[in-house]
Design a protein that fits this description.
Layout (H helix, E strand, L loop, with lengths): L23 E7 L2 E8 L11 H5 L2 E3 L2 E5 L5 E4 L1 H14 L7 H14 L12 E11 L10 E11 L10 E5 L16 H5 L2 H9 L4 E5 L7 E3 L4 E6 L4 E4 L8 H12 L5 E4 L9 E8 L3 E10 L2 E4 L8 H14 L10 E3 L5
Parallel strand pairs: 8-9, 8-15, 12-13
Antiparallel strand pairs: 1-2, 1-7, 3-6, 4-5, 4-6, 5-17, 6-7, 9-10, 11-12, 11-14, 14-15, 15-16
Bound molecules: pyridoxal-5'-phosphate.
Family: Belongs to the class-IV pyridoxal-phosphate-dependent aminotransferase family.
Pfam family, one: Aminotran_4
Organism: Ligilactobacillus ruminis
Length: 346
């Protein structure tokens, strides 16, 4: 029987780190079908040394959050979108798709079983959910696995970038994370493996992270490696890059909708050239983990460009943040189908 009584952690200072919770979900794919094991207390996975996930990176993951509302209920934000995106990642890497219903019920089970660890309303912290699928089994040649594990674990988290709504600075990467016809649109480990070195170089120079440029000419902004990029133009338009090597962020598409429908702004997915940054009066990184993290300054080669301010969040970015988080935490009405309540009772 899972403990349902709230535990006490230092909710305000969680950061974004792994905290081992009591329960996680597992399912196995074998002989062409999924077999659901359900919840387990074992945080370790023992698999064959030849498993394709180890050598050839055959695996994909997702990231979403459970939000504690003022009334004690718990929200999932657009989990169907994460299910769909994982299915697309699976298609790209020749892995069996996890059905949407199984994906969402796994999330529900994990949140319910670990409900004592869902951060309280008002702390800004959330329960981060990490679904993933890996190719396993005896193998050595380059080919897709015959067997797979799908699992979901959870960990309570606070801010991803240390600033929260205080702007931080970013560096234009000298490396690419993905190619146009590569796996940029898939949430797969390889994209992240290739981002470790440029990420480290950015951290060493005091930046929050790097911003990747288009892999063809390195003239346009792509994204922030773990979050998408958006800007507010001088004439009040919400713009975000369009490129085949960007990961389609659920947060980004939600902001495109909210900017248009709730804030009455014009929006566009378009090219954002690094030699035309003066057109942008605000900029930010957006994603489940990053939420909305304002970008203060952006170092491109020798040029340091400040968007709104290095110390203060811009007014439109703040409005977007309030709209988005208001919906996620249940304080504002959500567009139809965006919120799924978790059933916390037996
Ligand atoms: C997960 C991810 C994002 C953010 O997507 P959300 O659905 O908003 O969480 C952005 N870029 C990359 C590379 C990602 O892996």
């Amino acid at each position: 029987m899972p403990n349902t009584e709230q535990v006490n952690l230092d909710w305000e200072n969680l950061g974004f780190s792994y905290h081992k919770l009591p329960y996680r979900y597992r399912a196995y794919f074998k002989d062409g079908q999924w077999c659901q094991q359900g919840l387990t207390e074992d945080a370790n996975i023992t698999i064959n040394e030849g498993s394709p996930i180890f050598h050839y990176g055959q695996g994909a993951f997702e990231g979403l959050k459970a939000y504690r509302c003022k009334d004690g209920s718990v929200n999932l934000f657009r989990p169907d979108q994460n299910a769909k995106r994982m299915q697309n990642s699976c298609k790209r890497l020749l892995m069996p798709e996890v059905p949407t219903e199984m994906f969402i019920s796994a999330l529900q089970e994990v949140v319910k079983a670990n409900q004592a660890y869902i951060p309280p309303y008002g702390t800004g912290a959330t329960l981060y959910l990490r679904p993933f699928i890996i190719g396993i089994g005896e193998n050595v040649g380059v080919k897709p696995a015959k067997e797979y594990i799908f699992s979901v674990f959870a960990t309570p988290v606070g801010n991803y970038f240390k600033g929260g709504l205080t702007p931080t600075n970013f560096l234009a990467a000298d490396y690419d994370r993905a190619a146009h016809k590569g796996t940029g649109q898939s949430k797969v480990g390889g994209n992240y493996a290739s981002s470790l070195l440029p990420g480290n170089l950015a951290h060493e120079r005091g930046f929050s992270d790097c911003i990747y440029l288009d892999p063809i000419e390195h003239r346009k902004i792509e994204e922030v490696g773990s979050a998408n990029f958006f800007g507010i133009t001088r004439d009040g338009k919400f713009v975000t890059p369009k490129s085949p090597s960007i990961l389609p962020s659920v947060t980004k598409y939600s902001l495109l909708y909210l900017a248009k429908h709730n804030l009455g702004m014009e929006t566009a997915e378009t090219d954002i050239y690094i030699d035309q940054l003066d057109n942008l009066v605000e900029a930010g990184a957006c994603g489940t983990a990053a939420v909305i993290s304002p970008i203060g300054g952006f170092q491109v080669g020798d040029d340091f460009h400040v968007f709104y301010s290095e110390t203060e969040v811009g007014p439109v970015t703040r409005k977007l943040y309030d709209e988005l988080t208001g919906i996620q935490f249940g304080d504002k009405p959500a567009p139809k189908g965006w919120i799924l309540k978790v059933d916390l009772d037996d």
